[in-house]
Amino acid sequence: MAESDNSNCLKGYSYAEPEIQQFVKDFSKLILEDALIPQTDPNTKVLNFKQPLDLQKYLDLEIYEESIPREKLLELGKKVIGGSIVSGHPHFFNTMYTAIDPYSLFGAWLTEALNCNVHTYEVSPVMVTLENYIFKKISSVIGYPDGEGIFCPGSSFSNLTAIHLARFRYNSTLKEKGMFTCEPMTILKSEDAHYSIEKGASFLGFGTDNVVTIKTDDRGRIVPKDLEHKICQCKQNVAEFKHRRFNGKAAHNHLHFYKIVPAFQQEAKTVSITQQLVSEQQLSRYQRDTYKQLQGRLTSLWDQYEEDSIRTSDFLRSVGHLYAPPVPQPETLPESDSEDSDYESD
Ligand SMILES: Cc1ncc(COP(=O)(O)O)c(C=O)c1O
Where are stretches of biased composition, namely Acidic residues (predicted)? Predict the structure, then answer.
């Protein structure tokens, strides 16, 4: 009884059924004839391009309540192939692509057919054994015979993992402590680097403001002089951060002697870097962006005032705007308030 129940529930899904076997043969034929054979035919189109809205209609994206017959599914498969790039086409030039070779396809189909996880040896003895072997092989090729690894689902995740590992190597306590107890860290990247570096900085808690860009030359190589310069700037910012943090602590009303001594001891550790920066003439004033911009606007207003290109009242009003919430313009004020002759000098 239980057996027949079970077979009922598998009806339409069991590979023992002739209809299902026929379906597998049909879709293999479709993939071979429509997707794979054209890969090596230079006379086919690289892409039958359709505008996005046309493509949506062509694909019939509606999800229906009722199931659809297998023939319809094959038709949809044909459309998916028909609207896609022939990525192995000899006229398709793009990064990261090559034709799918038959032996890799066999491995890919085998993996899909087995539908295994790789999380424990018990559920997937073969895949776990293969994975371990591949990690050892790849890591030994690049000089780490006892290396470990992880397969990444793409380049963004690879970059994110690389940043994470670099940070761990720099300070392994971060694993337990997080970023809260450490000094600010900076990521240096080439100006040609992919934007996934910023994504990584954001995901991992560095903040995108802490990604510093290094100039490259006309062949995409990092310019060493600029790298050197940016490293010095970063060191300086770290030293300045400590200085301001210490000032913050020292300004506290109830800072006892027994608290200030360890703070000084901690601070003393930055002396050598400060010495180095002073000797390299790399120390300059640290200014937050907000104040830098404010200072710039004030200077520009002052220059305009000195050149007589703005009136005293305009100058004062503009300065007021910089420091305070906007005030209404004279024409929007009631008549009695619109006089600003108090400010007039000319
Ligand atoms: C150098 C580099 N990093 C990251 C990426 C992003 O890759 P993915 O789309 O796999 O995340 C690319 C993709 O072009 C890349 O070329």
Answer: 334-346
Q: Is 155 in the pocket of ligand 1 (CB under 6 A)?
A: yes
With CA atoms as reference, report the closest residue to 240 among 283, 290, 196, 291: 283
Question: Does the pLDDT at position 342 exceed 70?
Answer: no
Instruction: Answer yes or no: are the C-beta atoms of 77 and 23 closer than 8 Å.
Output: no
The string of pLDDT tens digits covering residues 186-227 is 999 999 999 999 999 999 999 999 999 999 999 999 999 999
Token pair for residue 159? 């970059």
Task: Please tell me the distance between residue 194's alpha carbon and the centre of ligand 1 in angstroms.
Answer: 7
Name the helix (H) or strand (E) containing 232.
helix 224-250
CB contact at 8 A, 57 and 104:
no
d(C-alpha 235, C-alpha 241), whole Å: 10
Q: Best mutation site among 196, 198, 203, 216 for ligand 1, i.e. most ligand atoms within 8 A of its Cβ?
A: 196
Separation of 173 CA from ligand 1 center, angstroms? 30
pLDDT at 97: 80
CA-to-CA distance for 255 and 268, rounded, in angstroms?
Answer: 18
Compute, in angstroms, the gap from residue 152 CA to the centroid of ligand 1: 12
Mean pLDDT of all residues belonging to the chain: 84
247 in Cβ contact with 225 (< 8 Å): no
Claim: this prediction has a pTM higher than 0.85 = no
pLDDT in tens, 107-123: 999 999 999 888 899 99
Question: Which two tokens mark 181?
Answer: 């107890």
Q: Which residues, 6 or more positions from 156, have their beta carbon under 8 angstroms from its beta carbon?
A: 194, 196, 199, 200
Q: Pick the residue whose CA is nearest to atom 1 on ligand 1.
A: 194
Residue found by looking up tokens 């690049």 in the block: 142
pLDDT in tens, 54-70: 999 999 888 889 988 99
